[in-house]
Structures are given as structure tokens and as C-alpha cells.
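It is worth pausing here to work through a concrete case rather than discussing structure prediction in the abstract. The textbook approach is simple: state the sequence, then state the predicted structure, then interpret. We follow exactly that order.
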Amino acid sequence: VVGVAYESDMRQVREVLEETANAIDWRLDSHEPVVLMTAFGSSSVNFEESVWTNDPWHARRAQSALYEAIWWALKEAGVVIAFPQLDVHFDPPVNESLTQLPRAS
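Step two, the predicted structure:
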């Protein structure tokens, strides 16, 4: 699962994820990778990518390799992997009172 910024080009994200999965040398050729958009999260649009292997004993290593490949492919494509963010907006009276507080020196 990977979450990307809402400003991302979702077609580009899908293409990058599909290309990355298809380039993995340990995946089973008999099963095409699956890329699904799974959620509109609070801070990201989430995708899930599934790649099949015939070596379950090395699944964690394979998953790590896939994560790294996704990381670098998205980074090279200029796609931002999202992280939780929170915007705080103050009502005008609160904002005014905050400007009156003494500043630390």
C-alpha cells in the first residue's frame, strides 16, 4: 500500500506502479501484477499493488525490494508519497488575540 498526494496525476501514479511491478525480476510471469486505487484517505489517495512470487520463504525480502522500487520510481517521476498533515485555521477573533501575545525573545 502506498499513499500519494491528492495533487498527483493518478494516471501517472498507476503507470509508474504498473511499470515498477512488471520490472521486478522475481515476480511470477504467469500472474500479472494488480494495481488498485483503494481509498481517498485523509491525507492521501491510496493504492495497493500485488505481485506474485513462487518463493514464500523470501516474501518479506521481496516485499522490501518492491517497496524500495516503488519509492525510487515515484521519486524519479516527481510523485509525492503523502504523509499525514493537518491544517489549522483560526477564526479572526482568535487570530487577533494571538497577535497580542508577547513574543519570546
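Step three, interpretation. Helices lie at 10-23, 59-76, 92-99. The radius of gyration is 20 Å.
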